[in-house]
Amino acid sequence: MMRVFEKMGRTLHLGFLLALSLVLILNVAHGGKTSTFVRKVEKTVDMPFDSDVFAVPPGYNAPQQVHITQGDLEGKALIVSWVTVDEPGSSEVHYWSEHSKEKKKADGKVVTYRFFNYTSGFIHHTTIRQLKHNTKYHYEIGIGNTTRQFWFITPPEVGPDVPYTFGLIGDLG
Ligand SMILES: *[C@@H]1O[C@H](CO)[C@@H](O)[C@H](O)[C@H]1NC(C)=O
Ligand SMILES: *[C@@H]1O[C@H](CO)[C@@H](O)[C@H](O)[C@H]1NC(C)=O
């Protein structure tokens, strides 16, 4: 019996040390909470359907539903995604940093899917790599048909005290 208690004691002791070192580590790295945002309990107001973000852009095969996703763990890659409806078109992204006007090119893939009687548009995903941290880039898509231009800023280099604000979107539709 005594042995068991002794063992338990040792385990507890280890657990305490672990907790303490965690507290110490957390105290050294102040990465913690960087945003005061707290989600409201009430249902949020829906974005109105006539909002310009839902409008079909004018022009033949113009890129729609354009969005970006971080493309690697350090923030040096970015995935550009969009949909074209008239034809597959090009998956090329032309991009340039605001410090250099030299355009670079990245190519990607185009996919479609069917769900019962629904057939999707042409869905493009193109990854841009070897970007510089904390840098504004402009990019163009829809090369060869209706070209649209957008921009983004890459996140800062990863570190213990680097603030990083991001959004999470769950689209169950
Ligand atoms: C698919 O089928 C549903 C149910 O039969 C119908 O309401 C809808 O209009 C159809 N959609 C297309 C794209 O044909
Ligand atoms: C649209 O773009 C694709 C890819 O660049 C090209 O092959 C096609 O000819 C273009 N279509 C029109 C109508 O310009």
TrEMBL record:
Keyword field: Glycoprotein, Hydrolase, Iron, Metal-binding, Signal, Zinc
Cofactor(s) the protein requires to work: Zn(2+); Fe cation
A Pfam family that the UniProt record links to this protein: Pur_ac_phosph_N
The Purple acid phosphatase N-terminal domain, residue ranges: 63-154
InterPro entries, per database record: PAPs-like, PAPs_N, Purple_acid_Pase-like_N
Superkingdom of the source species: Eukaryota
Record has Transferase as a keyword: no
Catalytic activity: a phosphate monoester + H2O = an alcohol + phosphate
SUPFAM superfamilies noted in UniProt: Purple acid phosphatase, N-terminal domain
Signal peptide annotation: 1-31
Keyword Iron: yes
Family (UniProt): Belongs to the metallophosphoesterase superfamily. Purple acid phosphatase family.
Name of protein: acid phosphatase
